[in-house]
């Protein structure tokens, strides 16, 4: 087994930005409380805190409370309270949070991972959503216990290689089987995108500029920043391509195939307009196609151009998932791409139009095996890196995508959730983001700083890494690369008979208030 | 023939075809394929097949070696070993046998019982296919010269009730259906394909391979086979593993061969449309459906070519409004009937066909209405020979002409005229035809006529002659009064006087004397670096400037000038030896000698000829390296389509200058940030992408998507820009286009407020007549969608007669040009005058001999506050 050469970053607890966190449960302390401090004394999770010298305990830190499960322990505060001053309830707020793809428990689970760098200790379902399909219906089969190996996380390789073409361009190995998707300067607060770059540096991974120019704040992390060249060509200059180890042609997004990127007028502030050299307050629509690329030989020319601007750059081709995505992918490969990035239909923040987001592209779990198999048939699979994105929400989704045939994934929304996005879906409006994330408003943007974003992301990905290591160990695999294309390790609940299906965790189902 | 009879014939043909066996058309094409490179030419005399070699090789990067094909029309009977009348009357049936063992079977089912065979032979091939770089052995192709047996034909007519039809046309239909059956049995219905018909026309031959196009001519030994017209296609199928060329182009309906660059978005819809007429595709590529459409319109409906083109590429928007009411009525019928079969998406067809009923050969180029694929047409006409060319790239045209001119001195390596078609337009219809027919001189010679969709003739100036090396240079160099005068001016280092003298003399002198003068300039150039600089400046000026050439073709004058320039460049000291001279010569072979400039060295003269078009060994990479070593000035010549000149230098290249000569390639000046690039001649596609800063001058036309996403720079174009220039440009680009643009100029332009540091485009709408005089174009901007959805910047349009109307716009608004506007654009017009000699006072502000104030000549197009863009007040 190859020794792992990279250093994994340290996790560190980093608290929520908000005074009142959101928990699965709520604990109310009523007026009967005499501030005896008993609850703080017994709670091992730090829900109740009464620092020395304080007359009364702080408001309970609800998101750390494990709820009614605690009854079975000897530290159930409700029962230990001598004055019956504590009341425990399920948090009704959860009914209104999230959506079927990102149910509230998945959000809370990721808040917790980003806070601690560990799996949440509260009983939360953060691996499965409620969508009724896709990854939510897929399960890893129970491994044969005989396969399991006993090695530490440090000995397990989660890195992937992005340049497999064997051309003379540099190799690029990233320590995680995933990297950050494009979020432009303009779509998201500067501190968020720079924080993502800082995290990418620490994780030895990558982030992507999106289509909004290359703010100078990226320069210290440039080895970990992908420059996106999208159809609007906003802010793309030779030096932005010379800065980056990898450039990404964004032909289409799975969230809105047939549409270019768009940034509505409200978000085009003075700073954004300056970066993109456009008119303040005027909506920016990128054309759907590259006007210079209407066919595959144009595409090759386009790739060749990038390679002349930066003689070491690797080229990633991001396409959405039409029915002939396999042909598109193999065409991109023959034209000289190092990475084929297929973007399925589940992704997209609130800014993509609903009609496009929900109705056009092929779901990513169909597209991955289709492309994977076609590349295998073409004898090209080991010469190109296949990256999947579009609704890859958590560590298990990443693992499933890899087992279906991808080399790795691109993550967008989960990064935002790690910095406490609640998926309210108001991303397109300038002052719409209540959490100060998807905004260019100078005032709202102050709600968040780079260090916070950096550490939250490091924590979340390190928690994910633990999950991947667990899966790999169970199957006796030492490297995430060995998982690629192992669709034999997956089952789809809909295709199992009743008895067989019962062996797997059922798909969560609950009615939500949307 | 009455309409009733015609109707009956159509019905009978369609009914007859309904009885053909067929497969169900699948929803998807068998291969996704893209664009490809297409090239073709048609000449009044037969030309050898080897001349399709160079243009094909130079477009390798438009294909991937997984499919190439060629077609020849109007063949030379002797080269095929048959008498002329056999070639003209018989069907030239070519069957590709993928499986040798299927030959007897195919012959016994589909050939021998049907045809009287004049001659059958296996097309000769070279022995070893891998010796020319082919990876897959091409199929054995058998060629049969056949006529349908009289009794078979009689039965066919009787059975299908084709009595009203011309018997020869019925015979055509029999051949068509017979091939269809053959393909169905031995190709379409099988998993393991056995055989298919490559072509079956009269006097048309198609051959294709899994490889590059020119490998088809090499493998099948066609280098010396002569034909009036040749077309070639480099295919780019995305699937990698192909073992037979069934899907490669050209495809044939009946008497034509069609190659296609592009990709239909509505492939399935077109198939369904064809299915309605009982036509079922067998090879499942969009090229096959295109030729089936063409054949349906041509042979079944018997449409004239104009209507066929309209059915394929409908006239839309403002162009439709510009048609005459009669034409509108006809076109409306055509569109309502055939719109669903009209191919959607990017496409460009080159069709070579034989019309035995009218006794003519034709080369046709048709672009889609939106002009999404690149295309260039060219024409060369002299008394005794004429040639028309159409290609994906201009460099391929030049390569063809150079190749032919090398062998036949009647041809000039430079075309007399280059132009683009404007798709679906009322001006040229987006299509041109080169027709070869009898010259009516009674000596059997042929003549080439060029027409647009509407039948209007395109021609080069009459009464001008080409340079004829044998006749004009029979006497060697001689000094005379004129050369002495030239040397005197050289001795005085008087460049302006030299320019004036040459332009004046070049108009009146004979080729022989011009050659003498140019040779004199060459010898002066050898007298030292300062003289060389003057010589280069002088010849460059003569190359760029459109001046009257009297009774001589400009192309031939240019040929002499460029040869002299080339030999001056070539005579520069080689980089290995040089130290003390300003000019240092480098080429592919000596590129390893590249080093930092030393001593007096200032200008790197790059002979780009043998460099690769892209990648590790391209000239762009080499100049990049030279820049890092300290070279700032480059003269690059000898181009044959090499790409990316000036790319990759990064920001702050302010002191760099490129002078680019000959057939330069795509993407020049893309991303430049500070440097200056001058292109001395016509340029190709995708120039000045994301250009940030610097100066860019083109002494000619530019191709598609010029300055897409540009952010700045000062740009001057002598001629026209093709489709989609300056789309999505931001920042402060400042551009002068002296000609016009095809379509979509400055869509989504976002370049701020021009009066406050933003960008703008000046469109002058002028051209040069045959005497080099500035004349107004019929329309300063003929296309639609001018300044669509723009949110910033402005267009200054020279339109004294207000010919451009609101219908041309899509979101913009006309405004008066104010003093502030004029003050802003004047310096750019002055530089334009300086560069191209287009006078503000005498040319631009003089309309019909009358001098007008600027605000009566120029109009401004501004963005409007658009709801769609959600513009907010700030």
Q: How many beta-strand elements of chain B? A: 33
**Tell me, what is the CATH class of the largest domain in chain B?**
Alpha Beta
Largest sheet of chain B: 12 strands, mixed
Number of domains of chain B: 3
Outline type of chain B:
globular
CATH classification class of the largest domain in chain A = Alpha Beta
- Biggest interface and which pair forms it? A-B, 55 and 76 residues
What CATH calls the topology of the largest domain in chain B is: Glutamine Phosphoribosylpyrophosphate, subunit 1, domain 1
List keywords for this structure.
heterodimer, A: 514 residues, alpha/beta, Alpha-Beta Plaits, TIM Barrel, 2 domains, eight-stranded parallel β-sheet, two-stranded antiparallel sheet, 15 helices, 16 strands, globular, B: 874 residues, Glutamine Phosphoribosylpyrophosphate, subunit 1, domain 1, twelve-stranded mixed β-sheet, seven-stranded antiparallel β-sheet, 24 helices, 24% strand
Describe the structure.
The complex is a heterodimer of chains A (514) and B (874). Chain A has two domains: 25-90, Alpha-Beta Plaits, CATH 3.30.70.20; 140-495, TIM Barrel, CATH 3.20.20. Chain A has 15 helices and 16 strands. Chain A has helices at residues 38-42, 77-80, 104-116, 190-203, 238-242, 270-276, 296-309, 325-334, 354-359, 364-377, 395-404, 413-418, 442-445, 450-475, 498-502; strands spanning 25-29, 86-90, 138-140, 160-161, 173-174, 178-180, 207-208, 225-230, 246-250, 262-263, 284-285, 314-320, 339-343, 385-389, 408-411, 490-492. In chain A, the strands form five sheets. An eight-stranded parallel sheet of chain A has the order 6-15-14-13-12-9-8-7. In chain A, strands 1-2 form a two-stranded antiparallel ribbon. In chain A, strand 12, helix 8 (325-334) and strand 13 form a beta-alpha-beta unit. In chain A, helix 3 crosses helix 14 and helix 4 (190-203) crosses helix 14 (450-475). The radius of gyration of chain A is 23 Å and the shape is globular. In chain A, 58% of the residues are buried. The model of chain A has no long low-confidence stretch (mean pLDDT 91). Chain B is of the alpha/beta class and 874 residues long. Helices cover 30% and strands 24% of the residues of chain B. Chain B has 24 helices and 33 strands. In chain B, the strands form six sheets. A twelve-stranded mixed sheet of chain B has the order 18-19-20-21-22-23-24-25-26-29-33-30. A seven-stranded antiparallel sheet of chain B has the order 7-2-8-1-13-12-14. The radius of gyration of chain B is 28 Å and the shape is globular. Classes of the chains: A alpha/beta (514), B alpha/beta (874).
């Amino acid at each position: 087994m190859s020794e792992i050469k990279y250093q994994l970053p340290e996790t560190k607890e980093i608290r929520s930005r908000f005074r009142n966190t959101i928990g699965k449960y709520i604990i109310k302390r009523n007026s009967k409380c005499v501030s005896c401090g008993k609850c703080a004394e017994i709670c091992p999770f730090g829900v109740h805190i009464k620092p020395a010298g304080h007359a009364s305990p702080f408001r309970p830190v609800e998101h750390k409370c494990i709820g009614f499960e605690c009854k079975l322990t000897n530290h159930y505060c409700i029962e230990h309270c001598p004055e019956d001053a504590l009341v425990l309830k399920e948090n009704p707020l959860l009914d209104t949070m999230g959506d079927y793809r990102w149910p509230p428990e998945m959000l809370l689970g990721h808040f917790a991972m980003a806070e601690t760098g560990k799996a949440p200790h509260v009983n939360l379902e953060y691996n499965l959503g409620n969508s009724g399909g896709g990854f939510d219906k897929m399960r890893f089969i129970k491994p044969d216990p005989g396969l399991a190996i006993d090695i530490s996380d440090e000995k397990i390789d989660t890195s992937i290689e992005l340049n497999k073409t064997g051309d003379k361009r540099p190799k690029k190995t990233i320590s995680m089987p995933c990297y950050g998707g494009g979020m432009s300067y303009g779509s998201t607060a500067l501190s968020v995108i720079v924080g993502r770059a800082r995290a990418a540096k620490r994780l030895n991974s990558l982030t992507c500029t999106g289509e909004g120019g290359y703010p100078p704040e990226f320069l210290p992390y440039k080895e970990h920043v992908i420059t996106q060249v999208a159809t609007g060509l906003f802010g793309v200059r030779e030096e932005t391509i010379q800065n980056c180890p990898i450039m990404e042609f964004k032909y289409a997004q799975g969230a809105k195939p047939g549409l270019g990127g768009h940034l509505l007028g409200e978000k085009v502030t003075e700073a954004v307009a300056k970066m993109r050299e456009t008119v303040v307050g005027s909506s920016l629509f990128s054309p759907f196609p590259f006007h210079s690329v209407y066919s595959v030989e144009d595409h090759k020319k386009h790739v060749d151009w990038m390679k002349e601007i930066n003689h070491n750059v690797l080229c990633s081709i991001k396409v959405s998932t039409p029915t002939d995505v396999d042909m598109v992918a193999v065409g991109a490969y023959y034209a000289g791409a190092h990475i084929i990035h297929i973007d399925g239909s589940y992704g997209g923040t609130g800014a993509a139009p609903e009609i496009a987001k929900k109705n056009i592209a092929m779901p990513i779990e169909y597209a991955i095996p289709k492309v994977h198999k076609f590349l295998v048939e073409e004898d090209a699979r080991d010469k190109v890196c296949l990256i999947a994105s579009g609704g890859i929400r958590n560590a298990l989704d990443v693992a499933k995508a890899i087992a279906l045939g991808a080399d790795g994934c691109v993550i967008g929304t989960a990064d935002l959730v790690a910095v406490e996005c609640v998926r309210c879906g108001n991303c397109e409006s300038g002052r719409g983001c209540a959490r100060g994330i998807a905004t260019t408003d100078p005032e709202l943007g102050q709600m968040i700083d780079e260090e916070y974003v950096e550490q939250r992301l490091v924590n979340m990905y390190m928690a994910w890494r633990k999950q991947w290591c667990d899966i790999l160990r169970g199957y006796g695999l030492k490297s995430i690369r060995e998982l690629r294309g192992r669709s034999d390790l997956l089952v789809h609940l809909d295709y199992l008979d009743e008895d067989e299906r019962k062996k797997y965790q059922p798909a969560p189902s609950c009615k939500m208030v949307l | 023939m009455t309409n009733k009879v015609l109707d009956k014939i159509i019905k009978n043909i369609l009914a007859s075809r309904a009885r053909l066996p067929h497969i169900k058309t699948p929803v998807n094409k068998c291969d996704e394929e893209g664009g490809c490179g297409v090239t073709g030419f048609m000449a009044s005399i037969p030309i050898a097949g080897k001349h399709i070699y160079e243009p094909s090789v130079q477009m390798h990067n438009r294909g991937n070696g997984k499919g190439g094909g060629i077609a020849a029309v109007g063949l030379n009977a002797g080269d095929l070993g048959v008498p002329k009348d056999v070639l003209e009357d018989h069907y030239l049936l070519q069957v590709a046998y993928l499986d040798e063992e299927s030959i007897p079977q195919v012959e016994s089912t589909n050939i021998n019982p049907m045809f009287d065979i004049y001659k059958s032979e296996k097309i000769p091939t070279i022995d070893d296919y891998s010796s020319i770089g082919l990876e897959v052995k091409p199929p054995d192709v058998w060629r049969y010269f056949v006529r349908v047996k009289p009794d078979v034909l009689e039965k066919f007519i009787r059975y299908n009730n084709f009595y009203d039809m011309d018997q020869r046309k019925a015979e055509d239909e029999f051949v068509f259906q017979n091939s269809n059956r053959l393909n169905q049995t031995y190709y379409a219905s099988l998993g393991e394909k056995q055989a298919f018909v490559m072509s079956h026309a009269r006097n048309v031959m198609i051959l294709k391979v899994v490889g590059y196009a020119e490998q088809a001519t090499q493998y099948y030994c066609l280098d010396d086979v002569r034909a009036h017209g040749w077309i070639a296609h480099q295919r780019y199928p995305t699937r990698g593993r192909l073992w037979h060329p069934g899907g490669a182009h050209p495809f044939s309906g009946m008497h034509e061969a069609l190659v296609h660059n592009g990709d239909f978005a509505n492939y399935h819809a077109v198939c369904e449309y064809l299915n309605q007429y009982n036509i079922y595709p067998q090879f499942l590529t969009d090229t096959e459906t295109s030729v089936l459409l063409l054949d349906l319109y041509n042979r079944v409906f018997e449409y004239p070519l104009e209507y066929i083109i309209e059915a394929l590429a409908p006239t839309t928007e403002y162009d439709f409004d510009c048609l005459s009411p009669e034409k509108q009525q006809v076109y409306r019928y055509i569109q309502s009937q055939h719109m669903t079969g009209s191919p959607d998406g990017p496409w460009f067809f080159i069709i070579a066909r034989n019309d035995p009923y009218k006794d003519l050969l034709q080369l046709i180029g048709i672009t889609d209405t939106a002009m999404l694929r690149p295309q260039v047409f060219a024409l060369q006409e002299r008394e005794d020979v004429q040639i028309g060319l159409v290609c994906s790239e201009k460099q391929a045209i030049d390569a063809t002409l150079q190749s032919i001119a090398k062998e036949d001195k009647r041809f000039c390596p430079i075309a007399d005229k280059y132009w683009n078609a404007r798709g679906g337009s009322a001006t040229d219809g987006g299509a041109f035809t080169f027709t070869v027919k009898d010259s009516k001189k009674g000596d059997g010679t042929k003549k080439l006529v060029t027409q647009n969709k509407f039948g209007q003739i395109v021609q080069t100036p009459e009464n001008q002659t080409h340079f004829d090396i044998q006749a004009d240079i029979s006497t060697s160099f001689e000094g005379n009064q004129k050369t002495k005068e030239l040397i005197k001016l050289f001795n005085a280092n008087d460049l302006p006087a030299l320019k004036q003298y040459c332009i004046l003399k070049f108009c009146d002198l004979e080729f022989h004397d011009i050659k003498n003068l140019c040779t004199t300039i060459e010898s002066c150039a050898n007298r030292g670096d300062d003289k060389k600089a003057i010589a280069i400046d002088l010849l460059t000026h003569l190359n760029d400037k459109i001046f009257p050439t009297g009774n001589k073709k400009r192309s031939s004058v240019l040929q002499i000038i460029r040869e002299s320039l080339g030999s001056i460049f070539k005579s520069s000291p080689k980089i290995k030896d040089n130290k003390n001279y300003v000019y240092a010569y480098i080429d592919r072979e000596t590129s390893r000698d590249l080093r930092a400039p030393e001593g007096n060295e200032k200008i790197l003269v790059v002979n780009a000829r043998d460099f690769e078009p892209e990648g590790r060994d391209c000239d762009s990479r080499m100049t990049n390296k030279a820049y890092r070593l300290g070279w700032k000035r480059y003269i690059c010549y000898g181009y044959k389509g090499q790409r990316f000149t000036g790319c990759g230098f990064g920001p702050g290249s302010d002191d760099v200058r490129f002078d680019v000569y000959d057939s330069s390639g795509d993407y020049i000046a893309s991303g430049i940030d500070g440097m200056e690039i001058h292109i001395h001649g016509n340029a190709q596609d995708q120039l000045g992408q994301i250009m940030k800063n610097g100066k860019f001058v083109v002494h000619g036309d530019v191709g598609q998507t010029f300055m897409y996403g540009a952010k700045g720079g000062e740009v001057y174009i002598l001629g026209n820009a093709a489709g989609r220039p300056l789309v999505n440009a931001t920042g402060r680009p400042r551009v002068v286009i002296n000609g016009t643009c095809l379509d979509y100029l400055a869509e989504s332009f976002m370049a701020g407020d021009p009066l406050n540091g933003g960008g703008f485009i000046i469109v002058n709408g002028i051209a040069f007549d045959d005497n080099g005089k500035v004349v107004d174009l019929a329309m300063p901007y003929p296309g639609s969608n001018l300044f669509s959805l723009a949110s910033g910047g402005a267009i200054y349009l020279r339109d004294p007669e207000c010919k451009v109307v609101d219908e041309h716009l899509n979101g913009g608004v006309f405004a008066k040009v104010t003093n502030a506007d004029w003050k802003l654009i004047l310096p750019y017009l002055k530089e334009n005058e300086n560069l191209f000699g287009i006078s503000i006072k005498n040319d631009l502000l003089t309309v019909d001999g009358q001098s007008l104030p600027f605000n009566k000549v120029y109009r401004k197009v501004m963005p409007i506050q658009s709801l769609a863009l959600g513009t907010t007040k700030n």
